Amino acid sequence: MLQIMGKRCFNQVVKKRTIYKQVLNSTSTQPVAKDSETEFNKQLKQYEELSKIAPKRARAKKPQRKPFAKNLFLGNFDEEILTYPQLEKEDIDELETTLTQVEKLTKQELSNYKQFDANFLQNFGDYKLIGLQAGTFENGRECNISEHTKIMETLCHHRLRNNIIHNEQLGVQVLVKYGSDSLKKEFLGYFTSGKGIVGFCMAEDKMSNLTNMATKAALSADKKEWILSGEKIWVVNGNKSDFLIVFAMTDLVERDELQIPKITAFLVNKNSPGISSTQYDVNNLDLSKIRFDNTPVPIGNVIGVEGDGEKMILSIMNEFRLSYGSVCTALSKKIANKLCDYVIEETTDENLLLKTDAVRDKIGQITLNTFAMESMTYLTAGILDMYENQDVELEAAIIKYFSSQKTVENANICLNLVGTPALEESHWCNKLHRESLKYATLHETNDNLKVIIALMGLKYVGDTISDQIRIARNPLFNAPEIFKRMWNIRKDIEDNPKLKLKLNECLHPSLLMSANNLEYCIHRLKFGSEILLTRYGAEIMNQHIDLNRLADCIINIYAMTAVLGRASRSYCIGLQHGDFEMLMANAFCNYAKEAVQLNIKKIYEGPCQTNDENHRVIAKRLVKFKGYFPVHPLSRNF
Amino acid sequence: MFHKMWRSYFTILHKDRNSSKCVRNCIKHINTSVVCLSNGKKEAKEVAPKGLFENLQNKNRDTYIETIKIFVNRDAIYRRGHVDFIYSALKNMEEFGVQKDLKVYKALIDVLPKGKFIPQNIIQAEFMHYPKQQQCIIDLLEQMEDNGVMPDYEMEDMLLNIFGKKGFPLRKFWRMMYWMPKFKNLSPWPVPNPPPDDMLDLAKLAIDRISSIDAQSKTTIYHANDITDSIDHTWIVSAQSTKQKMLLQEYNEKDPVYVEGGFKVWLRSKSVNYFVLRGKPKPIKEDNEDNDNVSGLEVPYFGLKPPVKKSLSLNTSQHEQEDGIIFSVCATGTSSKDSLLSWIRHLEKDNPKLATIPIVFTLKQMPGDVTVTEETDS
């Protein structure tokens, strides 16, 4: 335990905030006050306000570490990550007071709101709940990511969670992170006070990559405006929004066969000429298609640097994926709580629902799933807070996949347990189930994401051990190395890797078994990714079935890491239910190990012993005959 | 001996499953070799009551059946010359248009007397009892097979009653019943049997078959009437996929495109003339990607795009061939140059680029007004 606490020490470096300087400068460079008394009072008031704001304590970050999840593919485990991150005592105290306010707000005062509009948002603005990461001088809270995630989770107790999270993560947050000072000055206050809603326009019909983005922006003749035209789809809050963040192609650089698109983000007033929107027919979600016909955008409304859009999209998507962790955790907790109430309610003397095995099994699963997604979310947020500029794109994608997928699973379990009453559209269970589906499908489907997860890992592996793979793929040219390799992987082939990472030394001793399970899985993952790269080479890009399996493994391994670290910490510092967290961690690791074992076995066996090849052939046939092809079982040939 | 031979053919069959012709040849070969052992010259059989079928004025199914009835009733007891009668009936089937009619074949088999030809002992059974009669029915079955007529179980009963369970015709029947159902639905592009008589339906089938290379192809039926100044008022069945539209859009407008044809495509016994719109070939990119190099894989962040190369470059489509890019394919009611011109005009509506590209008509044969031709010799 001492070791754990030791690793947690933060060096507090007090650093003068640049933002503080800026504000002081801006006050001093203001024009000399006129003699009128009102003007003077106004300035005085402004000054008083500013002097009340205390810049937050600067939080130092540790130097960047190697990406954690990506390194798992190579069999390297960064033990530091097993130390579950935590907030400083004073931070958590402050956070908790905020959370009680937020909880009161979402559960009582705003519980009747069904429309996501400025009226609703202004309540949030009053409590500074929009643009959480904005600086204190911009009416924000200067939250770090853990705090941000936790506050979002609490906000997501409200039924409009999808709208809230889109406005925050894909709207205001973009401005907070990338907006220039002048843009922030002009607009950020407007949004953080909840007076306006921001929509995020990125997706397009038939856009398979950024090169064929059809929305284009060009400078007008007088170079004072950008002229924007194109169509964007799936814009959440599209109808109610007052401003839109639009990504458009401003240039396409062609070099030989390569095409490099220059994407730029714009902040567009929804009332500008040439904007029309049509709403999709989606239940309880404001989802729109928005058209731009030669819409003028002032040149100052470019977010970030011109042509930097691609980097922005990737980084925003990371944080957005991470935010799915908080919203899905909130939803899953709600499912668990509601189900618990339901079971207690329905239990009678004759029908002891509470004590049946069937119900216990299901409730246990839901709790375990929720526990895992919560652990992963805050582990990742903590990693981001703790290390400078840490690469967590893979972790974020894992969280999006895991949390949304498990939330759908939880809702399914719940639907099955409740049974017929849940068929009613107004039933809580039905509503939650429909909502959970939205998280699994909106913007990017989980199937798609899984392939991305696996490829992110394999890209890292490929870049690192490209030479080894080349040798392994050409055995006849490299006989000595091949024999060495055969010797080295002999234990992996027997499915009995040697455990040598000693992960149990970083955890509570009673987690020995699970720590060993985790290590086993890491070795298997390494083995699996090496097999795939050796077998398919660069062609691995197209082997989606195996990529799916590999993704399943890394997802499970990351989840195991998170639950083990969390449970160990809770138990060591004696948190309430710490002993049960240990139990849940062990239970989850059992599950995960089984899944990883099976997946790697299938990867090892290859397409012929598994059903992969059969599926491919059947699918080809179906496409050829453009539909279900088998003749009816009652038909006769003669 | 017979079974040994059969087995050797069986192995050949396995190597080339698709060709039903091969099977037929095998079976023919077996039959003739068996016949050669027991039977004399083929010409000797053809002493038929001449002119029974040939001299008829109305040649259709009814008169054919009527002729068989007349023969049966003429000599109800002995039915002399029935083998010759059957041979001459088989020969004339196509003229009466009954070569695909199972009932007619049954009526012919029914001409033979029942019971007389059943072998009574093992020696008779092995040495082909009544060889001339047996061979006659084997030939009849062979003709059925060549015409793709599948026998049914009633025919089995008839053969059993005529030749007994050791008879060669019955063995042939069983072999046919084993193979024919297996070949019946083996075609990867099924065509209804019999194929439709309507030329338009037939053309649709043909164009669907040709364009099935790209699952996204859409078959459209245009009418030449819709084009002003068109002379031939006929239909045009045309197919084009989104990829082809894209390729046409990207095409260099200085290069001409060619309308080529007419080529023939067969649908069972009927053929359809079709034409293609072909452009100059693109240089096909050499696939010199090093599959062993796994560094620098690109993650497709915005959706799946199989099949992709490591660098996510686009693969050449199946429409881009070494000798040209195929932009569209069509069949018209008249196959005339004017109808093809109407086709191009229709395509221009979907592919505005086509209006700016020079079009060359290189029609190989004189445009005639027959699209659908019936196969004459089998």
From TrEMBL, chain A:
Localisation per UniProt entry: Mitochondrion
GO cellular component: mitochondrion
SUPFAM superfamilies linked to this entry: Acyl-CoA dehydrogenase C-terminal domain-like, Acyl-CoA dehydrogenase NM domain-like
GO molecular function, one term: acyl-CoA dehydrogenase activity
Chief location bin: mitochondrion
InterPro entries, alphabetized: ACAD9/ACADV-like_C, Acyl-CoA_Oxase/DH_mid-dom, Acyl-CoA_Oxase/DH_mid-dom_sf, AcylCo_DH-like_C, AcylCo_DH/oxidase_C, AcylCoA_DH/ox_N_sf, AcylCoA_DH/oxidase_NM_dom_sf
Domain annotation Acyl-CoA oxidase/dehydrogenase middle: ranges: 203-294
Signal peptide: none
Every Acyl-CoA dehydrogenase/oxidase C-terminal domain range: 307-441
Family: Belongs to the acyl-CoA dehydrogenase family.
Name used for this protein in its record: Uncharacterized protein
Automatic annotation (TrEMBL), chain B:
InterPro entries, per the entry: ECIST_C, ECSIT, ECSIT_N
Domain of life: Eukaryota
Keywords in alphabetical order: Cytoplasm, Immunity, Innate immunity, Mitochondrion, Nucleus, Transit peptide
Keyword Nucleus: yes
GO BP terms: cell surface receptor protein serine/threonine kinase signaling pathway; innate immune response
Domain ECSIT C-terminal: 241-364
SMART domains linked to this entry: ECSIT_Cterm
Location within or outside the cell: Cytoplasm; Mitochondrion; Nucleus
GO cellular component: mitochondrion; nucleus
Family: Belongs to the ECSIT family.
Protein name: Evolutionarily conserved signaling intermediate in Toll pathway, mitochondrial
Organism: Brassicogethes aeneus (Rape pollen beetle)
